[in-house]
C-alpha cells in the first residue's frame, strides 16, 4: 500500500514497458507504450473499512474490474474490463497491492493477479487476471507504479466524472481549473459524510502528496505538505546541488542555466528574495542580477521538459520567477506555479548538464528534482538587531569580507567603520592580539626547554 497511500493518480507499467490503458470503447483494458495518454492514468480510491485494498478508476469514470469471463475458452486467464458496478461494495473492483521489490502485484479477491500478457495475438497487449504457474511468467504480474501529478493536467486530460459514486462526492467542495494553464486548487476542508468512503477524485489536487497552489493565504502546514521554507528563511544567498553532485549555475551569456561541478564559482551563488504576500515562495537571483525563470518553451520538441532561463521580467509579480520550496527529507524540491519541479538532467547531450522544469513520472527520475541547499550567506533576524549588529539586514559574510590577511604575520586585519560596536571590538582584539601573543609564548617555551 505504500505505493498508493499518498498517490492520487498513477500509471501502471508492465514488464514489457507498456502502460495499462483504458480503451475508448469504455470496456477494454489493454497495454500501450503511450504513457502520456490520459487513458494511461488511473485515479486511486481507498476503500472505507479495508485499508489493504484500492480501486482504480479510468479516464472514462469506470473501474478496473476482474471479471469472471474467460479470456479464451479453455484457458485459465480471465478478462479484465472497465465497468461501473451495481453496488459500491463490489469486490471485483477491489485490488490488493502486494510489494515485490520496487514493483507491485495487484491481487483480486479470488487470489489471482493482474497480468500483462505478451507473445502473438490475441495475447499481445492483452491484460488478464491469472496465477503465474510457470517461472517464465512470474514477472508478468509485476507492475511499476508511476505517481502522476494531476494538478497540472489540461481539461481534456481530466477523467470523466461519470462515476457511479458521484453521489458520495456531493459533500466536497471542488475547484476545477479555469484554463488549461491554471492548476486546479483543492478544497481546504475536503469534508465528506461519515458514511462515505475516502475517495480521491482526479480533478482535485491531492493535499497528501502534491501541493496545491493559488492559495497563498493558506500555510503549508494546513495543506499537508512539508514546508521547505526552513532551508531559506535565514538565507541571503545559497548554492543548489543536484543529485549528480553538480551545482546550479548561471552562465555568462546571461540566459542559460546549467549544472557545473565548480561550486566555488560566483555563478553558482543565488541570492534569495522573499515574495511579498506569499510566505511560501521565493525568487532566486543570479550573479548577473537576473532571475531563475520557468519558461514555457520546450527544451526539446515533443518532450515534456521546459527550459529554465535567467531573465529580467517586466514586473516582479511575474509568477514565472517564483519558486515554492517543498521539503523532501534533507533535500528540497523547487516547484513552479504550474506544479512542475526544477529538474537536473543527466545522460548524453543535449540532456547532459541541462536544467528544465518538469514532473518526474518515472521512478528512476524522482531524485532528479531533489536539490541540496548550501547556505553561503545568512541574514541576521530582527531578534539579533540588539546584539550589536549594525542593522537587521546585515550578514555574517559581510564581516568576513572585511578581513584581509596580513602579509607579515598572517594574522587577520579588519577594517570597520562602526567604532561603537563593542561586540566587534572584542572579536578584533581576539584576532589582533591573541595570535601574536600565542607565537611569543611558544617561542619562550622553546627557549626554556633549550636552557
Q: How would you describe this protein?
A:
Residues 163-203 are annotated as: Disordered. The protein is mostly beta strands and 451 residues long. It folds into 3 domains: 1-210, Trefoil (Acidic Fibroblast Growth Factor, subunit A) (Trefoil), CATH 2.80.10.50; 229-378, Trefoil (Acidic Fibroblast Growth Factor, subunit A) (Trefoil); 388-450, no CATH class. 8% of the residues lie in helices and 28% in strands. It has a 4-stranded antiparallel β-sheet with strand order 5-4-1-12, with no helix packed on it. The N and C termini lie far apart (78 Å). Residues 152-224, 382-425 and 427-435 have low confidence and may be disordered.
Notable traits:
single chain, 451 residues, mainly beta, Trefoil (Acidic Fibroblast Growth Factor, subunit A), 4-stranded antiparallel sheet, 2 helices, 26 strands, elongated, DUF569 domain-containing protein, DUF569, Actin-crosslinking
| Main beta sheet | 4 strands, antiparallel
Shape: elongated
Query: Mean pLDDT score, rounded?
Result: 74
For the record, the CATH class of the largest domain is Mainly Beta
Strand percentage: 25-35%
Number of domains: 3
Category from helices, strands and their pairing: mainly beta
Rg over alpha carbons = 29 Å
What gap, in angstroms, lies between the N and C termini?
78 Å
Q: Order of strands across the widest beta sheet?
A: 5-4-1-12
Low-confidence stretches: 152-224, 382-425, 427-435
Protein name: DUF569 domain-containing protein
Pfam families: DUF569
Domain DUF569: 1-143, 229-371
InterPro entries: Actin-crosslinking, DUF569
Amino acid at each position: 500500500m505504500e505505493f498508493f497511500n499518498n498517490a492520487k493518480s498513477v500509471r501502471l507499467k508492465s514488464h514489457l514497458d507498456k502502460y495499462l490503458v483504458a480503451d475508448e470503447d469504455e470496456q477494454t483494458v489493454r497495454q500501450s507504450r503511450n504513457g502520456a495518454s490520459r487513458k494511461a492514468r488511473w485515479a486511486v480510491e481507498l476503500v472505507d473499512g479495508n485499508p489493504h485494498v484500492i480501486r482504480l478508476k479510468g479516464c472514462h469514470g469506470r473501474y478496473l474490474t476482474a471479471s469472471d469471463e474467460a479470456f479464451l475458452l479453455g484457458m485459465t486467464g480471465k478478462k479484465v474490463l472497465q465497468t461501473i458496478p451495481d453496488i459500491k461494495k463490489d469486490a471485483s473492483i477491489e485490488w490488493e497491492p502486494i510489494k515485490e521489490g520496487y514493483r507491485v502485484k495487484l491481487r483480486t479477491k479470488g487470489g489471482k493477479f493482474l497480468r500483462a500478457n505478451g507473445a502473438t495475438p490475441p495475447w499481445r497487449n492483452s491484460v488478464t487476471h491469472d496465477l503465474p504457474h510457470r517461472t517464465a511468467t512470474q514477472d508478468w504480474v509485476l507492475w511499476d507504479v508511476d505517481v502522476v501529478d494531476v494538478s497540472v493536467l489540461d481539461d481534456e486530460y481530466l477523467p470523466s466524472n461519470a462515476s457511479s459514486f458521484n453521489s458520495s462526492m456531493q459533500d466536497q467542495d471542488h475547484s476545477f481549473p479555469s484554463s488549461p494553464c491554471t492548476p486546479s486548487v483543492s478544497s481546504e476542508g475536503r469534508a465528506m459524510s461519515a458514511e462515505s468512503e475516502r475517495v480521491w477524485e482526479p480533478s482535485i489536487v491531492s493535499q497528501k502528496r502534491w501541493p496545491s497552489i493559488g492559495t497563498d493565504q493558506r500555510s503549508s502546514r494546513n495543506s499537508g505538505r512539508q514546508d521547505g521554507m526552513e532551508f531559506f528563511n535565514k538565507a541571503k544567498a545559497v548554492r543548489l546541488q543536484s543529485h549528480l553532485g553538480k551545482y546550479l549555475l548561471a552562465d555568462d551569456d546571461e540566459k542559460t542555466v546549467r549544472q557545473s561541478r565548480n561550486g566555488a564559482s560566483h555563478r553558482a551563488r543565488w541570492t534569495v528574495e522573499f515574495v511579498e504576500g506569499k510566505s511560501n515562495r521565493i525568487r532566486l537571483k543570479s550573479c548577473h542580477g537576473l532571475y531563475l525563470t520557468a519558461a514555457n518553451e520546450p527544451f526539446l520538441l515533443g518532450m515534456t521538459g521546459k527550459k529554465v532561463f535567467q531573465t529580467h521580467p517586466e514586473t516582479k509579480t511575474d509568477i514565472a520567477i517564483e519558486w515554492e520550496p517543498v521539503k523532501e527529507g534533507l533535500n528540497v524540491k523547487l516547484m513552479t506555479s504550474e506544479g512542475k519541479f526544477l529538474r537536473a538532467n543527466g545522460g548524453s547531450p543535449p540532456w547532459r548538464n541541462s536544467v528544465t522544469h518538469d514532473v518526474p513520472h518515472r521512478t528512476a527520475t524522482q531524485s532528479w528534482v531533489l536539490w541540496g541547499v548550501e547556505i553561503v550567506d545568512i541574514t541576521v533576524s530582527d531578534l539579533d538587531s540588539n546584539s550589536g549588529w549594525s542593522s537587521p539586514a546585515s550578514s555574517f559574510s559581510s564581516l568576513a569580507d572585511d578581513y584581509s590577511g596580513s602579509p607579515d604575520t598572517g594574522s587577520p586585519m579588519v577594517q570597520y567603520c562602526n567604532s561603537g560596536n563593542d561586540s566587534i571590538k572584542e572579536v578584533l582584539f581576539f584576532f589582533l592580539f591573541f595570535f601574536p601573543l600565542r607565537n611569543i609564548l611558544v617561542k619562550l617555551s622553546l627557549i626554556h626547554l633549550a636552557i
